[in-house]
Design a protein that fits this description.
Belongs to the SelA family. One of its GO terms (molecular function) is L-seryl-tRNA(Sec) selenium transferase activity. This is L-seryl-tRNA(Sec) selenium transferase. This protein is α/β, with parallel strands linked by helices and 462 residues long. The strands form 4 sheets. It has a 7-stranded mixed beta sheet, with helices on both faces. The protein has a 4-stranded antiparallel beta sheet with strand order 11-12-15-14. It starts with a helix and ends with a helix. The relative contact order is 0.13.
Length: 462
């Protein structure tokens, strides 16, 4: 039996000459496909030796070769449809860049640029100059610097300003961000000596004042943007900390994390500290580019010139610098802030967060009506809740509408898996044995993609 199975294995040349494998060669290249075919044949021989009695048909091997080549040759990082309703979904790439910046981005990405070339002076320029004016204008800061993320920004600030000096921070603000990165560790890695004050739930101004000594280098305030403390809790306002720090000739550093540039309270969201307001009191502020700002991943340092200019000459800045793609996306996004009347329309993050219930309801009804045209689907729409995500507006949810789908052909978990593992990948929710699509994070194009994928699935198995 074993010899018969070995004899039944298609020859290498037979597999390479099959139409499907030839197509793979045209798409992915001969070398990758040949190595994959060899690997599949070796695997089959090992399985037969181990006693596997599955018949190695040409069709079966070609299918395995196609799957293996796609896994090796296709992009690992790819487009995903976000139907979760989490606007700044860290696992799905956080902020969606504005379509309005696409042309500018492509021109710089696929050609040469004046990244570090001063066209007017015909000499070497500074890459940070491209975003400097806009950030100063929008935040009101004397000077700014962009690095690769906010954790890097905090580290650079501390490395520059408080080497081997104490940094006073409230115990209630010793936050942990994604992937177990913690503020205390960032402080010590940045060269500072951590000095905790107050209690977990309450810190008073006098706690900071009593902790100040001749070895104090700075006061640090950390905005708890990824959690909210309620009940018997109290923290010190930035204005009060500023007054205390400056009375002792110390700088105040404020890590704002998510970094909000426009007030969203008129749209029903709770108050969050605004960069421009916090800079009235703090000497240096740091925040992210890919959260509420709605741009690419970046850490933005804004503040007084005497401090920020020192950071520009810190050797660590070279290791933390951003490339032309980040700077292009950030500058183009910042340009959108120059037109406040169209800001919510042009910045997807802000548009999704501020959508009205009426807009969401209309979207859900339209989407539901189109899904009802597909066979075997039971579809409805219900009220639900979305999250801003990305460590922004913690503990606050946004009212939304969910389109729910069930079918006798699949369980909710199997339908979710089929969509998530398909192309394009569609990430949705499963609750109460229903597949749920939150329309807050869906575009018209996303709707079309979901409808097409569901049509393929129910048509195939109907």
């Amino acid at each position: 039996m074993k010899q018969n199975l070995f004899a039944a294995l298609p020859a290498m040349n037979t597999l390479m000459q099959s139409p499907a494998v030839k197509t793979l060669c045209d798409q992915y290249g001969y070398t990758l496909v040949k190595h994959t075919v060899q690997h599949v044949l070796t695997h089959w021989r090992s399985q037969i030796k181990a006693g596997d009695e599955t018949e190695p048909t040409l069709a079966l091997l070609v299918q395995q070769i196609q799957t293996a080549v796609h896994e090796k040759g296709d992009m690992s990082l790819r487009h995903v449809v976000n139907a979760t309703g989490v606007v700044l979904h860290t696992n799905l790439g956080r902020a969606v860049l504005s379509p309005a910046i696409r042309d500018t981005f492509e021109q710089v990405a696929f050609g040469y640029s004046n990244l570090e070339y001063n066209l007017a002076e015909k000499q070497r320029g500074q890459r940070y100059h491209h975003t400097e004016r806009l950030l100063q204008e929008i935040t009101g800061a004397e000077s700014v610097l962009v690095v690769n993320n906010n954790a890097a920004a905090v580290m650079l600030v501390l490395d520059t300003m408080v080497q081997q000096q104490e940094v006073i921070v409230s115990r209630g603000e010793l936050v942990e961000i994604g992937d177990s990165f913690r503020i205390p560790d960032i402080i010590t890695r940045g060269g500072g000596l951590l000095k905790e004050v107050g209690a977990t739930n309450k810190t008073h101004l006098y706690d900071y004042e009593r902790a100040i000594t001749e070895t104090t280098g700075a006061l640090l305030k950390v905005h708890t943007s990824n959690y909210r403390m309620v009940g018997f809790a109290e923290s010190v306002a930035t204005a009060d900390l500023s007054q205390l720090a400056h009375a002792h000739h110390l700088p105040l550093i404020n890590d704002l994390g998510s970094g909000l540039l426009v007030d969203l309270q008129p749209y029903g969201l709770p108050a969050e500290p605004l960069i421009k307001e916090e800079l009235k009191y703090a000497d240096v502020v740091t925040f992210s580019g890919d959260k509420l700002l709605g741009g690419p991943q970046a850490g933005i340092i804004a503040g007084k010139k005497e401090y920020v200019d020192q950071m520009k000459h810190n050797q660590l800045t070279r290791a933390l610098r951003v490339d032309k793609l980040t700077l292009t996306a950030l500058e183009a996004t910042l340009h959108l802030y120059q037109n406040p009347d169209k800001l919510l329309e042009n910045v997807p993050t802000l548009r999704m967060i501020t959508q009205s219930e009426a807009t969401l309801a209309n979207h859900a009804v339209d989407f539901m009506q189109r899904l009802l045209e597909l066979p075997t689907l039971q579809v409805s729409h219900i009220k639900g809740e979305s999250q801003v995500g990305g460590g922004s507006f913690p503990g606050y949810t946004l009212p939304t509408y969910l389109v729910t789908v069930t079918t006798p052909l699949y369980s909710a978990t199997k339908l979710e898996a089929a969509l998530r593992l398909g192309k394009p990948a569609i990430v949705a929710r499963v609750e109460n044995d229903q597949l749920q699509f939150d329309v807050r994070t869906l575009t018209a194009t996303d709707d079309e993609l979901i409808i097409q994928r569901l049509k393929e699935l129910v048509s195939r198995d109907a």
